[in-house]
Amino acid sequence: MRTAPTHQTSNPRTARETLTTEKTGTGPLAALDQVPWHQIQDSTGSAAAIPGLLVHLASEDAETARTALGELRKRICQYGFVVEQATAATVPFLWELAQVPRVTCRPQIIQLLKNIADARQWESIATAYPKLLNHRENPVVWEQKARQAVRSRRGALEHLMDENDTEIARATTELARALED
């Protein structure tokens, strides 16, 4: 008699070690510790949880990755158009994970990058309320830095366009269009 497989979530350290090369310390998440996550903000406050979410996003377990992506989206691109201070720091990791074949939600990661590239919420508000630009924490700057972070890695689009997966190709085409202007 067959039994259903038991669900085992990977712990963040194990998943991170899997995505980095022990000898060289390279890989999509190798630089996570170089970002001062405790000193920057996401939509919930401290961005300290973002590294763990990125590690879980890289999980081979689709449900774990999907849950992590949903939480990450709320923290860095709430409602699909409101970016936060931590968004720009997160974007390079999203680009890297979008290129790792074993990551289960690559099309959704690419869609999140498109949402970030399209974000103009704070700029729109600043047009109506210019005093927003005088605040110590300037969300317009966060938005600009986040969009620039997406644009700076657009060289990966060609690699992603070569994928045989139609969902990845569609999401990549949409992202490429968003980056044209």
Please describe what this structure looks like.
The chain has nine helices and four strands. It has helices at 12-19, 50-57, 62-76, 87-98, 106-118, 121-128, 139-152, 156-161, 166-178, and strands at 41-42, 45-46, 77-78, 82-83. The N and C termini lie far apart (58 Å). It has a two-stranded antiparallel ribbon with strand order 1-2. A two-stranded antiparallel sheet has the order 3-4. Helix 5 (106-118) packs parallel to helix 9 (166-178). With 181 residues, the chain is mainly alpha-helical. The relative contact order is 0.12.
Task: Determine the mean pLDDT.
Answer: 84
Radius of gyration, whole Å: 17 Å
- Treating each run of at least 4 consecutive H or I residues as one helix, how many helices? 9
> Strand percentage, roughly?
under 5%
Q: What's the N-to-C terminus distance? A: 58 Å
Shape: globular
Number of strands: 4
Main pleated-sheet profile: 2 strands, antiparallel
Query: What is the string of helix and strand elements?
Result: HEEHHEEHHHHHH
Helix content: 40-55%
Order of strands across the widest beta sheet?
1-2
Structural class: mainly alpha
Residue runs with pLDDT of under 50 for 5 or more positions: 1-18, 20-25
Index terms:
single chain; 181 residues; mainly alpha; two-stranded antiparallel sheet; 4% strand; disordered N terminus
Topology:
Blueprint: H1 12-19, E1 41-42, E2 45-46, H2 50-57, H3 62-76, E3 77-78, E4 82-83, H4 87-98, H5 106-118, H6 121-128, H7 139-152, H8 156-161, H9 166-178
Antiparallel strand pairs: 1-2, 3-4
